[in-house]
Amino acid sequence: MKINRTKDLPHALKNINEIISKLENKIPSLFLDYDGTLTPIVSDPEKAILSEKNKKSIIKLAQIIQVAVISGRDRANVASKIGLENLIYAGSHGYDITGPNGLDMQYGPGQETLPLLDKAEENLKRVLAEIPGAMVERKKYAIAVHYRNVEDSKVEVVQSIVNKELGKYNSLKEGLGKKIIELKPDLDWHKGKALNWILEKLDLHSQKYIPIFIGDDVTDEDALEVLKDDGIGIIVGNHDETTYANYILDNTDEVSEFLEQLADHLS
Ligand SMILES: O=P(O)(O)OC[C@H]1O[C@H](O[C@H]2O[C@H](CO)[C@@H](O)[C@H](O)[C@H]2O)[C@H](O)[C@@H](O)[C@@H]1O
Fold it and tell me: Does the keyword Iron-sulfur apply (predicted)?
């Protein structure tokens, strides 16, 4: 059960001193979502560009603490959008993780679904080509069907095409996001499991460490849940009435401000 009402959450910028005091005598690590957190939501996913301000803060932070990006995007795609080599990147909602010093993890059971995702991608691209604005984005371990640019009257058609395709595969399940419906492996693996995997792999789990996660969407709740008692979870905006987050930022501009202030405090 989610514990915090979004509207009652303390604001992360207004309470930055409290957050900084929680980091004292601990070693922080920082986990960031991409879309809706580091970049504003835009109609073309390829146009979600990291600002110079955020890039500068991330460079500064990565010189001091471990920084990881955990995204629903394909890992290679989000890594090229950020363009920094010394970060950990977890793509496809955590199924595909790489990082410095040869860090490389593909969530094994997910690989069995790759031929099914190939087939579904081919079918969906063919059928959805007839719906103006619909877009199929293949990530290694998921497919996002975008309907942000689809006429309202056609959205239900897109949804039923995706449901029909999903119905063909027992080992794929539906995932929801901001104006996307996803086809994902029907497995118990998500951003929260990936976050835990990274914490354990890098030995960042003990009481002397304190992880921070910032995210904006329903898929980010899995990561926020992991940190609800032993970390700092920040939700961006209010995707839902309740959340596992402990703090809130209202939008991506506030995330930029928060990252800049965090970098200044830690350096
Ligand atoms: O986990 P994230 O890094 O936040 O990725 C979630 C999805 O983000 C992208 O889609 C969203 O952002 C697009 C660009 O702003 C927007 O056009 C779309 O409507 C949003 O759903 C990305 O394209 C997806 O693959 C990610 O799953």
Answer: no
CB of residue 221 inside a 6 A radius of ligand 1: no
CATH of the domain at 180: 3.30.70.1020
Q: What is the pLDDT of residues 182-210, one digit of tens each?
A: 999 999 999 999 999 999 999 887 788 99
pLDDT digits (tens, 9 = 90+) for 237-251: 987 789 999 999 999
Domain count, the chain: 2
Predicted model pTM: 0.96
Q: 34: Cβ below 6 Å to ligand 1? A: yes
CA distance 174 to 125: 17
Q: Distance from the CA of 71 to the center of ligand 1, in angstroms?
A: 9
Ligand 1 center–CA 226 separation, angstroms: 22
Q: Tell me whether residue 264 is exposed, middle or buried, using C-beta atoms within 10 angstroms of its C-beta: 0 to 12, 13 to 18, 19 or more.
A: exposed
Q: Is 45 in the pocket of ligand 1 (CB under 6 A)?
A: yes
Active site residues: 33
Alpha carbons 91 and 99: distance in angstroms, whole number: 11
